[in-house]
């Protein structure tokens, strides 16, 4: 389905004369206002298209000047609705299956993968939230099914009416790495054993190969072959990118870090009865159309989607909190940061005096275009190590001081 923006559409706001039997054009009565607005066009739901454009016209009539960013937000949202087969007028059992919370999570993922700024993501979700306010006012939906209002305190004293859809805006230069520490990794690995085979394998690929979510769910089954085994611990020559229909950042081709142990797990999954049944379901859903070749398939026979992943991720976080009585403050993209941090750490242990090689290896397997991106991980590694050393010295100092006092 196509979704696009038609710019500079002339609009007249006022009262129209009643059309006579031979009138060929609309004539406005008395005073009226003329303005030009962008509108959304395409072969998606006529009802949704009409309501979106009505929203845009209302904003123009309220004096809003540049409505292009607003319509861009709708364009991204509608494309997402189509991709994940979401009905914008229905409420869903799971948060991340809804047309608001699910879209919010999609935007957050794009922010994490650095394909969208946090300020733009927040602006987009606020447009959708305001759109549902209009639908509520018109009696079409109940906005309480799509978001919850909340009162936020800013700067310790300012009260701001907000909602649980808002996305935190990170100031320039304020982004920080948030890899999982060793204890959190151990806890996560323990919980992963109780997850579905698909979700568990996806997490392992993100954590041990540094794959982005968009990359791992578009992996084709055909690239995982027995011939890749060469008697080494690391599999070489396993590449992803547009050539194998993997959605990499900037459509870049790159080799990924892959262990022989992990390849065995992927091949075992490919040869399992569970996987064969899912492939049959996928083929039965579309017997005449083009066959998908993606590795991960949902139990309904569809390609595993980001929505399915986030639903499982949300449940995993809740399970983590219940089991360990602690919050799991990480996003899926933090698994990639964890891989990079682990890679730097192990490389530094092997070649402690050769930082240049460590940076080069990490840059290669992370697929970084700019070395400055890799240096963030090196800097984080040194800061973390330096902070740990300071903590040990301080502990020893206070411990000795306490003994001397006693």
From TrEMBL:
Membrane spanning stretches: none
Biological processes per GO annotation: DNA integration; DNA recombination
Domain Tyr recombinase: 175-395
Keywords assigned: DNA integration, DNA recombination, DNA-binding
CDD domains: DNA_BRE_C
Molecular function terms, GO-annotated: DNA binding
Record keyword Iron present: no
InterPro entries per UniProt: DNA_brk_join_enz, Integrase-like_cat_sf, Integrase_catalytic, Tyrosine_recombinase_XerCD
UniProt xrefs under PANTHER family: INTEGRASE_RECOMBINASE PROTEIN MJ0367-RELATED, PHAGE INTEGRASE-RELATED
Family: Belongs to the 'phage' integrase family.
The protein's name: Tyr recombinase domain-containing protein
Organism (species): Oceanimonas doudoroffii
């Amino acid at each position: 389905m196509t979704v696009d923006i038609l710019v500079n559409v002339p609009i007249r706001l006022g009262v129209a004369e009643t059309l006579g039997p031979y009138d060929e054009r609309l004539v406005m009565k008395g005073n009226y206002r003329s303005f030009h607005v962008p509108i959304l066009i395409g072969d998606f739901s006529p009802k949704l298209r009409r309501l979106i454009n009505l929203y845009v016209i209302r904003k123009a009539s309220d004096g809003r000047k540049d409505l292009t960013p607003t319509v861009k937000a709708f364009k991204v949202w509608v494309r997402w609705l189509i991709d994940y087969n979401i009905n914008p007028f229905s409420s869903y059992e799971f948060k991340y299956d809804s047309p608001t919370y699910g879209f919010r999570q999609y935007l957050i993922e794009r922010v994490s993968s650095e394909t969208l700024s946090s300020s733009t993501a927040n602006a987009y979700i606020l447009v959708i939230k305001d759109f549902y306010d209009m639908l509520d006012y018109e009696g079409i939906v109940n906005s309480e099914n799509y978001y919850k209002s909340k009162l936020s305190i800013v700067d310790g004293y300012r009260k701001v009416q907000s909602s649980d859809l808002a996305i935190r805006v990170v100031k320039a230069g304020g982004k920080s790495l948030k890899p999982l520490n060793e204890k959190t990794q151990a806890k996560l690995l323990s919980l992963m054993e109780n997850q579905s085979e698909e979700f568990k394998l996806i997490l392992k690929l993100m954590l041990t190969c540094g794959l982005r979510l968009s990359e791992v769910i578009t992996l084709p089954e055909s690239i995982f072959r027995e011939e890749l085994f060469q008697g080494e611990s690391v599999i070489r020559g396993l590449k992803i990118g547009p050539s194998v229909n993997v959605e990499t950042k900037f459509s870049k081709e790159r080799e990924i870090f892959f262990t022989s142990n992990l390849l065995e797990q992927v091949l075992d999954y490919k040869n399992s009865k569970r996987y064969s049944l899912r492939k049959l379901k996928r083929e039965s859903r579309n017997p005449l159309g083009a066959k998908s070749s993606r590795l991960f398939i949902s139990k309904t026979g569809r390609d595993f989607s980001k929505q399915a992943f986030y639903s499982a991720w949300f449940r995993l976080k809740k399970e983590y909190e219940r089991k360990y009585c602690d919050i799991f403050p990480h996003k899926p993209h933090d698994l990639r940061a964890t891989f990079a941090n682990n890679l730097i750490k192990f490389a530094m242990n092997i070649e402690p005096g050769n930082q240049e090689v460590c940076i080069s290896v990490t840059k290669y397997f992370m697929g970084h275009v700019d070395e400055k991106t890799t240096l963030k991980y090196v800097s984080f590694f040194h800061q973390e190590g330096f902070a740990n050393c300071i903590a040990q010295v301080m502990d020893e100092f206070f411990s000795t001081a306490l003994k001397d006092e006693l």
